[in-house]
Amino acid sequence: MFDCAYQNHNLVLFLCVAIAACGATTAALPDNLTITAVLAGKCTSATAMDVAMKSGPCTDKIIQVELPNQRLGFTFFLRREGEKNSGTFFAFWGDGSKQLHLNPDTAMQPIDRVDFFFQGSTDHLVAAGSCRFSNPYKGVPAQVSCSADTNEGKFTGEFISDGRPPDMTQTR
User: Fold this and answer.
1) Over pLDDT 90: what percentage of the chain?
2) What is the pTM of this model?
3) Is residue 1 in a domain?
């Protein structure tokens, strides 16, 4: 199981790279906070660079990050067969101010970039796509479904929560 308690060096490294790469500014969120939400559940499918992952492709947690400049990202952590955590992950990023609310409990986030961390390096790929996600605070399983096309191929991630609310943290 992937440990999202911020003790994982690759996770901390990725979040630092992601925040720096997204150009975090001092506007938008009150007190310039970055909000991180860890959602537990089950990843049901994942594709990276047009390659569909075999059964059990991702860990049992995903992370949503909202930066002070309203950039919003969903991070999926992949594992190799027989490994609990291989240090490979990808994140779908978009401008949260362009989010569409399809109904009171479902939102659609346009995606303009995918960050792909593999074998110690991160590729920042221009993307076109979206993430659709439901309200994780209703006490029922919430869904996160992301898909984006890049010059390096298609990335997708499908996740369903265990029905518990996410673990939230705020940092400056």
Assistant:
1) 58
2) 0.79
3) no
